Amino acid sequence: MLVAVRDLADAARRFETAYGLRALEGGRHPGVGTANMIVPLGTAYLELIAVVDLEQARRAPTGRRIMRAVEEGRTFATWAVRTDDLDGLREHLRAAGLDLAPPLAGARERPDGVTLRWRAQLLGAPETPGILPFVIEWQVPPGEHPGAAPVAHASGARAIRSVRLGDPDPAAASARLRALLGDLPVSVERAAESGVQAVEVETTQGVVTVA
């Protein structure tokens, strides 16, 4: 879940105050012009992401996506689902009629010097908001996934419960998601524009909604 922000440190303070969620320092994305902080939530995470190099960001799809989300005042730039078999999923998606670009290789270096690597598959136009996520295949050892980082959230947060999406035609959007990616912990509600509306996080104090 990519939360587009102008300033990482300010956003981290806001998330801790408003939601009881602690963000850990992430790192820079070489060649993309962005940097992030991570809110670990077990097998998933929220990613606070900001542009730190304007020229690089203008040349990279992800950088332009973050810039546009910030300019439009949207909390979420996009969202992601995880797979352990990106090549197999690509075959399924092509059979379902999607015209796929080649996967993108990604990496960032953590503050402790460990480099995390992954492959990502875009499912739609990278700069246009929509309900379709991108798909990520992590190439990291067990336990190195960002969501697994040890952290004590003030709210006792432990997992993402659900992703709330919006679309002008929620029934059709929901059916398309199921056809492409199967059953996911998401709901689709009516909205003027397609995109992520909110994320529900399970905590020891109840469900916290990030919107």
Summarize the structure.
This protein has one domain: 2,3-Dihydroxybiphenyl 1,2-Dioxygenase, domain 1 (Roll), CATH 3.10.180.
SSE topology string: EHEEEHHEEHEEEEHEEE
Query: CATH homologous superfamily name?
Result: 2,3-Dihydroxybiphenyl 1,2-Dioxygenase, domain 1
Shape: globular
Q: Report mean pLDDT, rounded to a whole number.
A: 95
For the biggest sheet, the summary is: 5 strands, mixed
The percentage helix is 10-25%
Classified by CATH, the class is Alpha Beta
Strand order of the largest sheet: 2-3-4-1-5
Whole-Å distance between the termini? 12 Å
* Rg over CA atoms: 16 Å
Strand element count? 13
What's the helix count? Answer: 5
CATH fold-level label: 2,3-Dihydroxybiphenyl 1,2-Dioxygenase, domain 1
Structural class by secondary-structure content: alpha+beta
Give a description of the structure.
It is a single chain. With 211 residues, the protein is of the alpha+beta class. It has one domain (2-140, 156-210): 2,3-Dihydroxybiphenyl 1,2-Dioxygenase, domain 1 (Roll), CATH 3.10.180. It has helices at 8-19, 54-59, 61-72, 86-95, 170-181; strands at residues 2-4, 24-29, 34-41, 44-51, 76-78, 80-82, 104-109, 115-121, 134-138, 159-167, 186-190, 195-203, 206-210. The strands form 3 sheets. The chain has a 5-stranded mixed sheet, with helices on both faces. The protein has a 4-stranded mixed sheet with strand order 6-9-8-7, with no helix packed on it. It has a 4-stranded mixed sheet with strand order 11-10-12-13. The longest helix is centred in the N-terminal third of the chain and has 12 residues, at 8-19. The model has no long low-confidence stretch (mean pLDDT 95).
